[in-house]
Structures are given as structure tokens and as C-alpha cells.
Design brief:
The chain is an alpha/beta fold. It is built from eight helices and eleven strands. It is globular. The strands form two sheets. Strands 1, 2, 3, 4, 5, 6, 7, 8 and 9 form a nine-stranded mixed β-sheet that branches. A two-stranded antiparallel sheet has the order 10-11. The chain has a single domain, classed as Spore Coat Polysaccharide Biosynthesis Protein SpsA, Chain A (Alpha-Beta Complex), CATH 3.90.550.
Length: 262
Amino acid sequence: MRTFIIPTLGRLHNQITYNNMPESVQKRTHFVVQSHEADEAIHLFGAESVRILPPSINRIGPTRQWIWEEYRGTDHAVFDDDIKVTHRGTGKYVLSAEEDWKLLESTVDSWHKSDRPICSLGTTWAPPPPDPFSDNGRIMTNWWFSANLTHPLDWTRVPAGEDLDVVLQTLTAGIQNRISYDFLASVGGTNSAGGCSTWRNIDVHNESQRKLAALWPDFVKMSEKDVKSGPWKGQKKINVTLLCKKAYKSSQRNSVVDDIFA
């Protein structure tokens, strides 16, 4: 049975993802919290639903690393704490009924069985493409892992871009992903109160994007734009484009070379 994991910070009383899950899914959900929020989390959700990070962990990258080491080799999904799941197929803006989640999970299960050990729901930030899913793309806000995936992953190399780094780590290792554009994740605004906003500013963000590009020069392209709204309004923000399909193709070329010289 799949476990859902929600790392959360500064938002214990505003759990959007959890509050929009059906009860059967809530019972399979674990909150991962920093030690200073442990007592309050246990008071709200019960000790059986709370996992407490070591006191030395206070950033999202090491948090995701801890989660990966704890749950690797199990069917699990890691969600940001501010997600509402939507379904284009039924027109439901918030997917909170039991039967809807059963369809969602059975869909992901079928993808795991067709050699897609990592799956994700596309976000509503931009109009989704017409196809119900796409393979080998950019993943953010939610990750669904198959129990069959035990590959070592490093979530700590890029402080405010760990998910993009892991996308490229997996694709260049020949591990495919599938992103749903039928089921979608509607998420909160960038750097909203709580979570990473407690330490991530525009300089941290931009430096992380530069580090990502330095790690993956063949698969990351940077651009800069003026932020028009939000807490970073009026500042210059670096955005990155990931060449995901090119990254996966590179793994296949390497496999061919390995086969020739095996």
C-alpha cells in the first residue's frame, strides 16, 4: 500500500494537501517535520503520522535525502504541503473523493508496471498539453516512486533546485518518468509564507540555478527575467529550461557503447 509523505515547515495549521485528501489516504500519510515542530505536529495529527527529522536538518534538500533513505524501496509519494489535485477528465477542481483517488492511484500503478518507476502530476502553472501524459520531463511539487526503484539519489547538491537535479540524475541514468496532464497539481505561489521561504531569497534561488547549470551544462539552459509580482517583484530572477528528453537519450547512447564493449 502506497504511503504519502508531506514534508512541512511553518504550516502545520494550514495543511492544504492533507485537508484535500480522502480519509483513507490521510490514514496513509506521514508528515515529516523539523524537531522544533514535532510536539505540535504530534498534537495535531498523532504520533503514528509524524516523522521527526534529526535536529541537524533544517533545509529541504537534506529533508528530501532523509525521506529517500527512509522510504526507498517502497511505493510512496512525496507531496509539497500546498497542493490541490485536480482532474481534467471529470472536471473536478479538487480531487478529494475516495473513488477519484482510487482512479488516480491505479493509473500511477499501471505506469509503474510499464517501466516508469517515477511519476508525477503536472502543475497548473501553465496550460497543460492535450495529451493525458508525457514521458521523461521536468518534475516539481510531487514525486511518485515505485518500490522497484532503489537507485541512489543525491538531493543535497543544489540547495533550492534539488528536484531538478534529481530529474537529471535519474534520466541520465536511464530511469524514465511519466507526468500526468489529466490529473494535475494546483500549487501555491512561489515563496509563499512558510516552507522554503524561511531561508530562500532571490539570491539563493539564482545561485542554485547557476549551480544546476554548472552541474549539467549539456541539459540546462538559463535565462533571466524581471519578476512582475509576488515577494520578489522588481528583481531579476534566473529561470532554467531542462532538456529532459536529451538527458534520457544520453543514457541510451551510453548503454549502446557499454553493450559494444561488454
